[in-house]
Amino acid sequence: MNEDHQNSLSIRAFEAADIDADAFDHESHVYMGWLYLKEYDLAHAIARFDAALRRLTDKLGATGKYHATITWLFLLLIGERCREGEDWPAFRARNRDIIENSRSALRRYYSEDRLFSDRARRQFILPDRADA
């Protein structure tokens, strides 16, 4: 994610679904989740981010791209890994696994069948991998 794109992302813009969807890649999702978790406690961050992401996918006509379990899992991971006073570059450097290899992070916690079930798309479900 380049610095200009990062600077254009804000909670207000995300909640208004006023972002460049073509540039909103996985790292942008993680960054936005990080912003929410810096601003709100975990429960409120999840609720607000989830609602904003649903609005965005609805606005883009991409409702089928929304996946509740993936959304919640990454917010939980980000929340667990956030450190007081840490900026985005430091967080990013320390958490490359969830930014650069998201599939691997998902497989650590979920089997393919469980993660890509209709139920997991609609609502958060707990991991089924023993090392989770």
Radius of gyration using CA atoms only? 14 Å
N→C terminal distance: 28 Å
Which percent bin holds the helix content?
A: 55-70%
| Major sheet | none
Count of extended strands? 0
Low-confidence stretches: none
Give the DSSP E fraction (strand runs of 2 or more residues).
under 5%
Structural shape: globular
Secondary structure tally, helices: 10
Mean residue pLDDT: 91
Q: Work out the count of structural domains.
A: 1
Structural class: mainly alpha
Order of helices and strands: HHHHHHHHHH
Please characterize this protein's 3D structure:
The protein has one domain (3-101). It is an all-alpha fold. It has 10 helices and no strands. The chain has helices spanning 3-8, 11-15, 26-39, 42-59, 68-81, 88-94, 96-100, 102-109, 112-115, 118-122. The chain is 65% helix and 0% strand. The model has no long low-confidence stretch (mean pLDDT 91). Helix 3 packs antiparallel against helix 4, helix 3 crosses helix 5 and helix 4 packs antiparallel against helix 5 (68-81). The protein is globular, with a radius of gyration of 14 Å. The two termini are 28 Å apart.
